[in-house]
Every structure is written in C-alpha cells, then in structure tokens.
C-alpha cells in the first residue's frame, strides 16, 4: 500500500513537472521574437523574425504544430498516455489571447481586448478547476476515455495514428474556435452594445458549465461513496440543471464559444461562427458516444433510457410527459 502511494505521488510530481515545462519552447521563442521586434524596425529584421512579424496566424499554427502536436505527441507516446492535451485544452486559448494581444501587428480597442482576455481567463480557470477536481487533483492520472478506446481500436498503429487523431485534429478545432481572439486584436473598432451581449453570453455559458460540472462531480462522488459501502448506486443524475438537460455542461461550454464568436461577428467577420459551429457538431458526436457508453452500463441502462425520453439533449427545457405514451403502448 505504501509503495503504491509512493509510486502515485512520484508519477503525479513527474507529470506536473513535464506539463509545466512542455510549453516553454514556444513561449521562449515568442518572447525572443518580441524582443527583436522591440529592438529593431520591421524592415531591418532577419528573414526569420520578418516572417514571424508578417504572419501572426501562420506563426501561431507553426508553434502549435511543433510544440503541441509533435512534442506533446512524443511525450504521450513515451508515457503511453495522451493525457496532457486535455489539460492544455484549458490553457491554450489563454496563451493564444495573450499571443495575439502582444504581437507587433496587433490593433484593438483596449476595453474590448481587456474584456475578452478577462473572459478567457474566467473560462480557463473554470475548466482547469473542473479538470483537476475530476482527476482528484492529480496530473495525468489517466487519459481521455475516447483516446483509450481508439488505442484499442487502432492497436499497433496507434503510436503514429494518434498524432492525427489526438493532436492535428484538435489543432484544427482549437485554432478555429479561437479565431475570434485574433479578430479582436486586429481591429480597433469602438465598443458597442453587441460586445456586452457577447460578454453576457460568455459569462452565462461559463456559469452554467460550472454549476453543471459541480452537480455532476457531487453525483459521481456520492456514487463512489455508495460503492465503497457496498450499497446500490444511484443510476442517473436527474436533479439541478440535469433535470432540464441531459448535458447542461456541454450546453454551457457551447454558449461560451458562441459568445466568443459574437465578438468577431460584431467586428464584421460574420463567417467566423464556422469554428463554433464545427465545434458544436463535433460535440454532438461526442454526445452520442457518451450516451452509448451510459447505455452499456447495466445498472443505469433502463433509467437512462427513460431519462432520454423525457429530457432535452442540450438546451435546458421542461420535462416531457410519458403518461400519454405509456397509455398508447
């Protein structure tokens, strides 16, 4: 027992150190670029720094590819667990927000920039807290169950296919939904009422997601206690926000991204909602996977089937009545 606890503590400490040092190459590179830009005129920069100066989006994607896709993939392959991308999903948008704000070509309304960066920090703190609470305050205790399932599915090919399935695919999604952060820092348009609407949607999304995750955490913790006591588990969470939606945490998360997209829409980049749309479609697919997983658990399958019949999938709404349907059958 003592040996197992010691090994867990050692693994936790090792993963914490790895995750804290992992993004440093791109951070140091970017800070070096900014220092060169501050010390010289754009025309006198070396070819490398000049390219970084004129291509902020390409630079962001290059750093993502080298530092996240390749380095995180290499670490995950060595550890046989691609856990770190889940943690950094909560951090990368904050890094991108500050990256776009600090770039020499950045141009923005100061208040809109402060508002968006503050909101991004609020979202990140909420999601990071949820991640560590779910993982019992451990670093890299496990990888996402979807990756574990794919590991079994791909077998010996997983070591190379994981680069595409786990990392490159998420780069497309993450950079896509974070495009509004770039737009906010590329135009100096006066703040208006639509910015406040966008901010309200973002805050509502973060608040809904926080309470939904907290209710889910309490439910899971209660079932874990019942399991330790040898008592019957509660088959389904059907209270609080979960009474009105089967996935209120997903609904809140989507509100956040659509609110962020509205900032870009307000700056006349209306097509930037595509990132939020694609993310919502992907989350729709994840919802199907999650519900299939629920239905495979014998102790909750019947209760969850009834829950599906009466409760909205994402958008919170009133319960459907089964009285008429039961009479028909």
TrEMBL record:
Q: Mind telling me what this protein is named?
A: Steroid 5-alpha reductase C-terminal domain-containing protein
Q: Which organism is it from?
A: Castilleja foliolosa
Instruction: Reply yes or no: does the keyword Membrane apply.
Output: yes
Supply the alphabetized keyword list: Membrane, Transmembrane, Transmembrane helix
Coiled-coil residue spans: none
Listed Pfam families: DUF1295
Residues passing through the membrane, by range: 12-33, 53-75, 87-106, 158-184, 191-212, 271-290
InterPro entries attached to this UniProt entry = UstE-like (IPR010721)
